[in-house]
Queue: 2 jobs
Job 1
Amino acid sequence: MTAFVTLRGVYNTPLLSIELGVERSQDQDLMTSRALEQFLASVEKRAFKIAQLGLRNDDDALDAVQDAMMKLVQSYASRSAEEWRPLFYRILTNRIHDLQRRRTVRGRIMAWLPARVDEEEEFDPIAEAPSHEPLPEKRLELDEAIGVLESAVAALPARQQQAFLLRNFEGLDVAETASAMGCSEGSVKTHYFRALESLRARLGEVV
Amino acid sequence: MSPESEKDSFEKRTRELLDESTARLDGRTQSRLTQARHTALDRLERPSRFGWRTLVPAGAAAAVAMLAVLMWRPDAPAVPTAHVESPVEDLELLTDAEAPDFAEAGEDLEFYEWAAGEMET
């Protein structure tokens, strides 16, 4: 009898602690999931804009953002929430670069193939139709300023573009931008300064 | 206006314009971003048991290897492109083992499989 009680005592203790551990772990997972959702919701639109300017293609930009989200969740969910932003933008920056490289290789492969494979561009009359919706003058001015700025940002060299968008648009500090870009803080300052100079020279009074 | 304040004002204005542009994202894009977020968070609850390498079809992997060889051929014709870059870069990307995202979505492998078929014919 004594032995039985002792055995129960021996087995009960770890079982109880395991159950408590599971509950605690589920609570932690739920908190992490909610925190991650809040974080991703807070960055997704700007992340899309950054990817859109880097890739100049909405579908590719959406793919890049989704891949960055997945990678962050799969590999870095357990990191502290303060680390997520630079990590997320590091992943996104790498993904954009990867897609740009693949696009270049695809272009070169397509150049090897017979010309007939290039003739798949279809004209979509609805997508191409001009909008007749009248726009107020102010809105037109804003549209023009946004268009000119985005064209100028899209035309920047990749590293300058990243530094400008991460620092000025996303609001990362120099250290976070360096972490996201995988370079030194000095390089970030240089790329950012050159980006600003280039944009100022190109845009002048337009914006 | 001092150069410093002018710089601040320029930075502020460009940021405002990009914020405005972001706020105008259409409903379809916003919806797709929400879907992307939910898909990513789903991975937290149900992590994938398999890495991408286990999912790569053998035929597609062979197509990538074949393309790499075709593009590397020393007797191959010059690539008609404005970019004068080393084919080593293409080879590096096609065989980049350090890029786990390279084939994750499968769309590239489908393209390389198709392109290898085109080159054969």
Note: Chain A touches chain B through 54 residues (CB under 8 Å).
Job 2
Amino acid sequence: MPDETVVTLKLNQQQLELVDRTVARGVAPDRAALVRLALREYAAAHLGRATTEDRSPD
Amino acid sequence: MSEREKISEWIMPPGTGKAIELLRGQILRVEQIDGGQCVDFNCFNLHDYKEFMHCGRTRTVHGFNPSRGAFMWSAPPRERAMLYILDDTYGRNDVLFPRCSAYVYESAYGFDVHTNCHDIQAEAQREYGLTPDDVHDSFNLFMCTEVTLDGHATMTRQSTKPGDHVDLLALMDVLAVPNVCGADVMRTSNFSLKPIKLTVFAATPADLDAVPDVPRRASQRTPDDFRNPTIKPDRALRRDPTYAPEFPNVPIVVSDLAVVLSAAEFAMLRTLKLDIYGADDAAALRDILFSWWEERFLAAHSGAPAIEAQVASPRRQ
């Protein structure tokens, strides 16, 4: 598996507005960082602690 | 606590309904006399009948059996809290079932004419110039229903007693229209038709203080906001040759957002990915993004405003 993989989301202007408002709240520094945060937190909530710790990001 | 001032009282005989002007700050008590009687209920903005209570919105916010602490909401695009359920001594109401109708009694039971909630509502509403087409989905008071595992709604008998009541506090001036449910060959009212007592009170300060604050939103629109605020006076539909569509946020424009995932993050994505997305990692990641957002930031389910009051559970059947 490569060290990094680029995934290109397709988001419409309404979806981007919600992303940008969330970033503006200080949840993440930018759009891409917010997506990665969402992925990690969602995984932590739905895959279980052991699994996500095994795959610790960053 | 101060006593409520009684404004009016009415007994609804079986087979009838009553349209009542209920002003903001007044309470309509719908009360069992003998017990065991279902009551269907319609509600309109007294100053604009096109704003009416919407069971769909109400059940989305408060569930299939709204009770004490729930609001009755008007239909989009108004979506205002019209009434507040201040008290409910029985605690079983329904927003799943439609009103019974003449068709039901003809097709299922063979009646040429039979008491039915649609026609009773229409006759009560006629006092205020409304037509049978204006009757809307009913909020069914004291009606015991449930959803079965195979996805059907069913009704059961009820065990209300004399004096059981629902108190509805008007948050705006409304035309409140309760009717004695016409179903005597169904179990909703235990196979008999009984009278119902209606009482209008002036709310006390304590009553008014019990209502949770409901946020006012720009999306709660009125005819002043409509591109076409004029009620159509004729029945036939004809195309407006000057019509130019103005749908909100159209055109929908899609943009790319490239996200660099570490090997660990990509592994998470692959593990979380739902089958419906097949090989489309981007769609799967978009799903995770917005599913996460809902879990982290939504204050209430189904987009409902977070206004549901925390009240003690009323007595259940």
Note: Chain B has two domains: 5-224, 263-297.
